[in-house]
């Protein structure tokens, strides 16, 4: 897609992304028009199309950026084998919560607006989602093999874990009764039980910073 060079262009593009994320999360992809988006940031419609030629291109860009950021962050945070599967599962659980809590609009788009993508764009985003999911599946499979986890269907369990953790963004409020750390600790205990970790294993596994 065409991009404007220079610092002003970079700032304008960032403003477009931020406003689009907010408007789509609030009103939905179909209800948001490019004209409304241009008005939101005080930009002419013709200028907006120089950054994103179509609304579909904008949505795809937002979802791709969300997944690229997630995969890059997880690549830095993950514990690789031969670290114990139980420790890797805890790292995944806490990482997923910490990464997604500050990004509720991005999470909303990532799950609720996949249906609005063209088949080609959907396939690209779905491939990135599967890559992230596969990392968790491998952790659960390793735990099943070494006996530290009792997870009969790792692929199904991985989807249940991710859905459970992602759902936190729908109800979490910064001024709510639970702190992010309390949420992490509570959900880690639940995820460990869900995946068949024994009480001893849950008590002795590390707690990543």
TrEMBL record:
PROSITE patterns in the record: HTH_TETR_1, HTH_TETR_2
UniProt keywords, alphabetically: DNA-binding, Transcription, Transcription regulation
InterPro entries: DNA-bd_HTH_TetR-type_CS, Homeodomain-like_sf, HTH-type_TetR-like_transc_reg, HTH_TetR, KstR2_TetR_C, Tet_transcr_reg_TetR-rel_C_sf
DNA-binding region: 33-52
Annotated HTH tetR-type domain residues: 10-70
GO molecular function terms listed in the Swiss-Prot or TrEMBL record: DNA-binding transcription factor activity; transcription cis-regulatory region binding
One Pfam family cited in the UniProt record for this chain: TetR_N
PANTHER family: HTH-TYPE TRANSCRIPTIONAL REGULATOR BETI, HTH-TYPE TRANSCRIPTIONAL REGULATOR RUTR
Name of protein: TetR family transcriptional regulator
Species of origin: Thermohalobaculum xanthum
Organism ancestry: Bacteria, Pseudomonadati, Pseudomonadota, Alphaproteobacteria, Rhodobacterales
